Amino acid sequence: MKRPIIVPAQIRAARAMLEWSQEDLAEKSSVSLSTVRDVESQRRPLDTAAAAEIHRALENAGLIFIPGAALTGLPTSVAPSGTRAIRSRAGVSFSTP
């Protein structure tokens, strides 16, 4: 099954949920620190093998990426696995059951 492409803001949000630095993400995804910085700042495409490794590392850490819907306006949302999804719209966060 193909993973959905995640956007840089979702990568940053996922790091924040895990309390990981860019250095932590680089180490856990086996990519260079400059690659993490480039992906997060949109200087590198998100459909590369490096971006897939970043996505894999975040999922392996327990995060799930929820396919997007009109509710979020994003292609996917991110949430810790085993918890209720936290979604945001227009700056207002709310939980879904």
Oligomer class: single chain
The structural domain count equals 1
Number of helices: 4
Number of strands: 4
Kindly provide the name of the CATH class.
Answer: Mainly Alpha
In which range does the helix fraction lie?
Answer: 40-55%
Distance between the termini: 26 Å
Q: CATH superfamily assignment? A: lambda repressor-like DNA-binding domains
Descriptive report:
The chain has 97 residues and is an alpha+beta fold. The chain has one domain (8-95): 434 Repressor (Amino-terminal Domain) (Orthogonal Bundle). 40% of the residues lie in helices and 19% in strands. The protein is built from four helices and four strands. It has helices at 8-18, 22-29, 33-40, 49-60, and strands at residues 63-67, 76-80, 86-89, 92-95. It has a two-stranded antiparallel ribbon. The chain has a two-stranded antiparallel sheet with strand order 3-4. The longest helix is centred in the middle third of the chain and has 12 residues, at 49-60.
Spell out the blueprint of helices and strands.
Elements: H1 8-18, H2 22-29, H3 33-40, H4 49-60, E1 63-67, E2 76-80, E3 86-89, E4 92-95
Antiparallel strand pairs: 1-2, 3-4
Helix pairs in contact: 2-3, 2-4
Features of this protein?
alpha+beta, two-stranded antiparallel sheet, 4 helices, 4 strands, 40% helix, 19% strand, disordered C terminus
In short:
Helix content is 40%, strand content 19%.
